[in-house]
Amino acid sequence: MEKKKREVRNESSTGMSRRNFLGTVSAGALGATIARPVPRASGQEDSGNLPQVTITINGRVHQLRVEPRWTLLYVLRDKLGLTGTKPGCERGECGSCTVLIDGVTRYSCLTLALEADGRQVTTVEGLMQGEQLGPVQRAFLEEDGFQCGYCTPGQVMSAEGLLRQKPNPTIDEIQIGMSGNLCRCGAYDHIFKSVRRAAELRK
Amino acid sequence: MRPFEYYSPRTLSEACNLLAEGEPDSKILAGGTDVLVEMRKSSAWSSKAIVDITRIPSLRGIGESGDWIIIKPLTTHTEVLHSDLVRTHAPLLQTAVSTIGSPQIRNRGTVGGNIMNAAACADTVPPLIALDAEIMLKSTSGERVIALSEFFVKPYVTVARRDEILVEVRFPKLPANARSSFVKLGRRNALSIARLSVAAVVCKDEAGVVTDARIVPGAAFPRWQRVPEAEKLLIGQKPSKELLVEGGKKVSEVMISFTGRRWSTEYKEPVIAVLVRRALEACE
């Protein structure tokens, strides 16, 4: 099942049209709501034999059975429906899957779900303050820190991680702190401005 | 990703036992920045088990013992970057880790993984060899210490046995009169793989005469090594601009004597010479 999903993703990443892309995402979200903790009968997905992990995601404790090969990214999106975290290159280069693990920025595509056992994970959904956007999200809106928006959740998480370490970063520190996230639209200038603005809004 | 067995030992001896007696075709997971990328290329991936050593606390941290700095293998690049000990006693290593990948990679990737993966472009290796680092390997049959310069056979191949775990990296603190540098040439500033790099250490006496010089190019030779032919040019001299240029040319010459002339030589020949000169200038 996972393999099939990945093929769909690969298609969308090579010849991505907005329609294909939206189709993939909504299918993923639908799959997740159905697939949640229902045990399956088929081989590897027989969840009774799978190791259990306890991961605190955005303050909520989740107990899940996971296959060893599942990445944190896959579990967040396809098992928990937290589709704010985006798959991109899936090999630790583009940054769209960035989340915080124990407060530190990490690529969720390069983290096994099993490795996150016992850890605190924060995704872009976790930056919301109730129904309101958090300061970093607001800053990206105010400063137009995106164009197509696909890399934005990752950018926002990198900014959040950076500002937790350095609440008042210099422009050099911003550029280094955001250097693990690619933006194919090239909105970097506005992204850097957004991070500055976010630093003000967080005060 | 293909299915695999996953083990998460909590102690070093448990990990050694797993590697010695468990699934013979297993792979150690530390930072995962290389292993997990390899695993996705499922055609090339054959290991049936992963031994995740990241939950062994004794394998993490930076310390000192007398004149030595000790770095445990699970220390991340970010931890090296923020270490006062490394800043004081091995600044070139700090420069090197600052060029690795991106913040997310540095938060994850480890010094031990960088060494054991043994990619020709590994950024921590040239500085560590310039620092005369040694490493300690452990298995159920005991421990052994190897000079890092003797550890590599060729890219991605080391003398470590399959059941051995890297448990310590250590090197003598640089003397107070040492200056050191690391320069790297990549295709961009972040998320960049070293095309070529140079680590250099130069010690001078009060008169400005070079008493010790160490030059280690990265991604240039079939295996990492110092370049004594170029180091000798500097020792006993007061470096002039011309001497540093000459040192660079010497490294280039030695490189070609090892690699022969190939498609990339036309580019690497002048570029490695310039990088060496810049690294030496940074030690002035």
Rounded to the nearest angstrom, the distance between the terminal CA atoms of chain A is 45 Å
Tell me the CATH architecture of the largest domain in chain A: Roll
Question: How many β strands of chain B by DSSP?
Answer: 13
Number of helices of chain A: 7
The CATH homologous superfamily of the largest domain in chain A: Beta-grasp domain
Element-level helix/strand string of chain B: EHEHEEEHHHHHHEEEEEEEEHHH
Computed Rg of chain B: 19 Å
Sum up the overall morphology of chain A in one term. globular
| Strand segment count of chain A | 5
Radius of gyration based on Cα positions of chain A: 17 Å
SSE arrangement:
The complex is a heterodimer of chains A (203) and B (284).
Chain A: H1 2-14, H2 18-35, E1 52-57, E2 60-65, H3 72-79, E3 98-101, E4 104-107, E5 120-122, H4 135-142, H5 152-165, H6 171-177, H7 188-202
Parallel strand pairs in A: 1-5
Antiparallel strand pairs in A: 1-2, 3-4, 3-5
Helix pairs in contact in A: 1-2, 4-7, 5-7
Chain B: E1 5-7, H1 12-21, E2 26-29, H2 35-40, E3 49-52, E4 62-65, E5 68-71, H3 77-81, H4 84-89, H5 91-98, H6 103-106, H7 111-117, H8 125-130, E6 134-139, E7 142-147, E8 152-154, E9 157-158, E10 165-172, E11 178-185, E12 196-204, E13 210-218, H9 228-234, H10 241-259, H11 265-282
Parallel strand pairs in B: 1-3, 2-3
Antiparallel strand pairs in B: 4-5, 5-10, 6-7, 6-10, 8-9, 11-12, 12-13
Helix pairs in contact in B: 9-10, 10-11
